[in-house]
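Bug report (template v2)

What were you trying to do?
Predict the complex of my protein with flavin-adenine dinucleotide.

What happened?
Run completed; filing so the output is reviewed.

Input:
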Amino acid sequence: MNNLVWFRNDLRVQDNNSLFEASKNKENTIGVYCLDPRQFETNKHGFKKTEKFRAKFLLETLRDLKNNLADLNIPLYIFHDIPEKVVPELINKHAITNLFLQKEWTPDEVLINNKVKENINRTEVKWIETYDQFLFHPNDIPYVSFDKIPEVFTEFRKKCEKESKIRPCVSITAMPKENFFVTSNIIPSLEDLGLENFKLHKNAAFPFRGGETNALKRIEHYFFETENLSVYKKTRNGLIGESYSSKLSAWLANGSISARTIYWEVQNYEREICKNEDTYWLIFELIWRDYFKYISLKHGDKIFKLNGILNKEYEWKLNDKAFRQWTNGNTREPFVNANMIELQKTGFMSNRGRQNVASYWAKEWEQDWRIAAKYFESMLIDYDVHSNYGNWMYNAGVGNDPRDRKFNIKRQAEMYDAKGEYQDLWNKK
Ligand code: FAD
């Protein structure tokens, strides 16, 4: 048997079920990652699908993955090319019999899968897909099918907490030395991807660095070294600095850490250091993350449609000038502006900020929420299709918010930035 692991948003070696399955019998195993040029193209609105922040984080992630795999005697090929060309070629070259990959269901990914399938001999290659991005595995949730997932988060959370268990992490052991060979291809640079190199902004909340090794360091720091986890619920609505929230989103998004790993580290922390409402709240937020994935599984392409999963018909505008004002932090609301400038300069924005700028765009200005969601997709270092579109629908009133709230931006600024420090930090003086 010859095994190929096609890495996508599961860029880790520990608790990676595809890698575990491929390597457990110590048969020949290699890995591949494709930097798909289509991910870095400019769209019709004039911005890139992936901007420099996430691209840089991804390249750092790949470097770390390649090293960590080499330690396990598993070679990783990295190509700046399309998967439907690269994967079949590797399959032929290495007489691959089993292809392992994380299961994705959104249209772009399914389309690429289908193209890859067209170019390989399906009778000779077994296609083995695993859901590996969840906290609660789809086979373990208390719903017989995805269409039974409730539209209200609390209902979902309570039932899962009561009736489902989180699976233990799988641990990958090294392959025999003979499995390893040096793959000559080097990792492309930002410039190779058509993006400019840049330095971390001096006001950046957090110096995100890609890779599983850094994700594990962040857990160690946020949990055990600083014990910030013990006050997470109290600080999570903060706006400035590295300690107000976990900052684990970027690693979770490209799968360089699994949600299960974080869950089990929280359990360790609760046993060794402290267990309180704050420590639980990080799990609560990870369940939100799962929930949006299940909503996406349930509703399919509807999460990308203007009327959302609610099929609500609102009057939406789409004004270029408004879009420029919003993205450049040039609106009448200094709190919105500060957040949008932070995103533009760093690729990150707090959860409090995201909710406010989204509400302002979709509810105050009644502008088409999808272009704003696309802009977030471009800019965010932690872009995750389900969390992004799920939260956007929620804030635009076409998703899972049973109360359909609109934020009072001035009041939000008074509550969360009473002294105006955050606004001063980012607004041009
Ligand atoms: P923490 O507060 O430390 O939370 C821990 C983890 O829980 C996060 O890393 C994340 O994985 C999960 N989480 C927390 N809040 C949410 C939430 N509301 N929805 C889903 N998961 C959550 N998050 C993304 O990861 N990718 C996105 O593309 C994304 N787009 C968003 C768009 C909008 C309009 C809004 C309102 C929110 C969006 N979020 C997104 C959710 C949230 O803002 C970020 O997960 C969070 O700010 C990341 O910082 P953190 O890791 O320090 O979060």
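What did the reviewer find?
The pocket of flavin-adenine dinucleotide is lined by residues 236, 245-249, 252-253, 282, 285-286, 288-289, 292, 350-351, 354-355, 358, 376, 380, 382-384, 387-388, 391-392, 395 (CB under 6 Å). The chain has a mean pLDDT of 97.
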